[in-house]
Design a protein that fits this description.
The chain has 365 residues and is mainly β. The protein is built from 3 helices and 27 strands. The strands form 7 sheets. A 9-stranded antiparallel β-sheet has the order 11-12-13-14-27-23-22-17-20, with no helix packed on it. It has a 5-stranded antiparallel β-sheet with strand order 1-2-3-4-5, with no helix packed on it. Bound molecules: alpha-D-galactopyranose (GLA). The site of alpha-D-galactopyranose has 12 residues, from strand 24 and strand 25.
C-alpha cells in the first residue's frame, strides 16, 4: 500500500474506532469475615474510573482539566477501612434497595405492612443499616467495564422479596455509564442510584460551580426531608436552575426549604420528552474548565450540596471533607414514593424488570 493510502486508512480507523476500554482487576483488601474485595480500573483514553466490589463504590474518577492535566473529581477514602468506617456520607456508593427516604421507615404494599430501620431520625434512608452500599457485590469483567451483582434476601432490611440487582459500569471515551437492572420473586419497591460526590476542580468547595437542572418543579420537604407531596414550580425560587447558575448564588437565602435542607438536599422533577435517557443536569467548573453532564431515564434527581460534611469525615489523603466540598446528583425516583400514591410508582412485580440507565459525560471548555 502506498504511504498516502495507508495514512488515510489509519486516519479513518482512528476516527471510527474510539480507544477501547481496558479493564484491570486488583485486590482491595478483605472484609472482617475474610471475603475479598476487588478493585476494577477502567481506562479509556484520558479517562480512568476505579470501582470496588464493596458497595460498588466509584472510588476515583480521573478526567483531564482544560489544560489536559488529569485529576480525581470524586470524594472518597484511601482504603477499605475508610469506606467501612464511614456510616454517613455514602461516598461514591451504589444505593439500594431504596435510595433516599421512606417516611417513618414504613410502607404498605398490596395490603401488607412493612417496617424498615429508622436510620435517619424518624425515617429510613438509603436502604437501611446495611444497604447495598455496604455489601460486597459479585463482579465480572464485561466489554468496556465491570458488571456487579448483588442478591438481597427476602426480608433483608425489612424489604419484601428476593431482589437480584445487576449494575454495570461502562467507561466510554467521554462518559461513565451505569446500567441498573433488578428482578424480584415478590412485589417490592426499588430505587437504585449512585451517590458520587463530584468536585470538578478536585479541591475546595463547589459554590462557584454553575449548575443547570432540566426541571420546572421540585418536591418540597418537611423537617425530616420527606416530600410533602406538593410538586412546586421552581420559578422565582432559589430552586430555579433552568439557566446555568452558581450553586452558591442563593444557597444562603432566607428560604424555608433551604433552611430545612441546610442547603440544597431536594428532589427535582425532570422535564421529559420521551422514555430514554435525557439531559438532566450539567455542572460547569469555571476554574478547571471541566464540565459534567448527567443523562438519565429516571423521573427525578436529588441535588445535594454536602450539607452534612463538617470535617469530621476524613477523605482521601486524610483531608477533612468540609461543608460543600462536593455536590451529588443522584438520579432516582422521588423520595418516599412507596407512601405517595400520586408519585410515579417504585413497585417492582415478579416477572417485571427494573431497567434504568444513567450516564455521566465529561468534558472541558
Ligand atoms: C442524600 C440525602 C442527604 C444525606 C446524604 C448522605 O443525599 O438526601 O440528606 O443523607 O444522602 O449524607
Amino acid at each position: 500500500m502506498k504511504f498516502a493510502a495507508l495514512a488515510a486508512a489509519l486516519a479513518v480507523s482512528a476516527l471510527c474506532l474510539p480507544a477501547a476500554t481496558t479493564v484491570k482487576k486488583g485486590d482491595y483488601g478483605k472484609m472482617p469475615d475474610g471475603t475479598p474485595v476487588a478493585i476494577y480500573t477502567l481506562t479509556n483514553g484520558a479517562l480512568e474510573a476505579r470501582i470496588i466490589t464493596y458497595g460498588g463504590i466509584l472510588v476515583s474518577m480521573k478526567t483531564p482539566d482544560r489544560k489536559g492535566v488529569a485529576g480525581d473529581i470524586v470524594l472518597g477514602h484511601d482504603d477499605l477501612a475508610g469506606y467501612m468506617g464511614d456510616k454517613g456520607t455514602y461516598f461514591g456508593a451504589l444505593i439500594g434497595r431504596y435510595a433516599n427516604r421512606i417516611a417513618h421507615g414504613a410502607f404498605t404494599l398490596n395490603g401488607a405492612a412493612y417496617k424498615l430501620a429508622k436510620n435517619n431520625g424518624e425515617n429510613a434512608l438509603h436502604g437501611g443499616l446495611a444497604g447495598f452500599n455496604s455489601r460486597v457485590w459479585a463482579a465480572r469483567e464485561v466489554p468496556g467495564g465491570v458488571e456487579l451483582s448483588y442478591t438481597s434476601k427476602d426480608g433483608e432490611e425489612g424489604y419484601p422479596g428476593t431482589l437480584k440487582a445487576v449494575v454495570t459500569y461502562l467507561l466510554t471515551t467521554n462518559s461513565l455509564q451505569l446500567h441498573y437492572t433488578a428482578t424480584t420473586d415478590k412485589a417490592t419497591v426499588v430505587n437504585l442510584t449512585n451517590h458520587s460526590y463530584w468536585n470538578l476542580r478536585g479541591d475546595g468547595d463547589i459554590l462557584n460551580n454553575l449548575l443547570t437542572i432540566n426541571s420546572d418543579r421540585y418536591t418540597p420537604v418537611d423537617a425530616g426531608l420527606i416530600p410533602t407531596g406538593e410538586l412546586k414550580s421552581v420559578a422565582g425560587t432559589p430552586f430555579d436552575f433552568r439557566k446555568p447558575t452558581a450553586v452558591g448564588a442563593r444557597i444562603a437565602q432566607n428560604d424555608p426549604q433551604l433552611q430545612l435542607g441546610h442547603g440544597y438536599d431536594h428532589n427535582w422533577i425532570l422535564n421529559k420528552s420521551g422514555k430514554g435517557p435525557e439531559l438532566a443536569a450539567r455542572v460547569d467548573d469555571p476554574a478547571s474548565g471541566r464540565f459534567l453532564e448527567v443523562y438519565t431515564d429516571q423521573p427525578g434527581i436529588q441535588f445535594y450540596t454536602g450539607n452534612f460534611l463538617d470535617g469530621t469525615v476524613k477523605g482521601k489523603g486524610g483531608k477533612p471533607a468540609l461543608l460543600h466540598a462536593a455536590l451529588c446528583l443522584e438520579t432516582q425516583h422521588y423520595p418516599d414514593s412507596p407512601n405517595k400514591p400520586s408519585f410515579p410508582t417504585t413497585e417492582l412485580k415478579p416477572g417485571a424488570k427494573y431497567d434504568t440507565t444513567t450516564e455521566f459525560r465529561f468534558g472541558t471548555r
